[in-house]
Design goal:
Elements (H helix, E strand, L loop, with lengths): L2 E3 L2 H9 L6 E4 L16 E3 L7 H13 L5 E3 L1 H7 L3 E4 L10 H8 L7 E4 L5 H14 L3 H21 L6 E8 L2 E3 L4 H7 L3 E2 L9 E2 L2 H7 L3 E4 L6 H11 L3 H4 L2 H4 L3 E3 L2 H4 L7 H13 L9
Parallel strand pairs: 1-2, 1-5, 5-6, 7-9, 7-11, 11-12
Antiparallel strand pairs: 3-4, 7-8, 8-10
Helix pairs in contact: 5-6, 6-13
Amino acid sequence: MRIVSLVPNGTEILFALGAGDLVVGVSHECDYPAEARTRPILTGSALTPGMSAAEVDAAVSAQVGGGLSLYTLDETRIAELAPDVIVTQQLCPVCAVSTEQVDGAVRPLPRCPELVSLDPNTIGGVFADIRRVGEVIGRSQAAEALLADLDRRLAAVRQRTASPRPRVLALEWLDPPFAGGHWVPEMIEIAGGIDVIARPGDHSARLTWDQIAAADPDVIVVMPCGFDEAGAREQIAMIADRPEWRALRAVREAQVFPVDANGCFSRPGPRLVDGVERLAAILHGGNPPASSV
């Protein structure tokens, strides 16, 4: 079997199921595990490198609003690779190449590969995707073993974080601010917190600073999409002098924590459980979290 994965979470699932040797092509964002970087890269970004957060937001809004993709797709190379399966997504046009774009690329091929679209809104949906990928590629036993381990780890977090329950705001973008949605509120709940803005399964939502001030979270977790922890810290520094940011109680009390969004929060794959464990450490102690800002 030859598999092309055009979404990082799909790539992570495939490697976690022991099917990395079947992966013959990936997206430019597929950077985990390290071996994934050795595969041919089949996508690229249509955005100009080096833009600020506000500039990225404006460019994304213009591109998506105009019905244009944020990504390029190497249709010629896909045809040469002749995949049996292509893993893609339709959940977020900002996050990766869409199923519609992939469908247009494979339609002319003499043998159409099976398209597997991963579009979860909750952790349960992520687990269902892991099970479905396992079935498609003949690794159901590996999928069940992985899911059992992930369930065990989540249960362990729930047992030790029952109370108290701090009020948490997850920010997946800072300029302008966006609340983390989809599976993030559920992650916060499992880790022993209360999401002050979103509910499990909600879409990510643009916020005003007045809304954030009114929510008055005890803790702010900064998880800007596309950034690791160091990048999240840099994004915080860029707004650190804004009076509406400095006025927030969580900021004044040094209860702001940048996290690795790419690794543990933005991508709906197995490492979301790492993110839950990280949140639990931030909210309730245990393995010490990185220093707050």
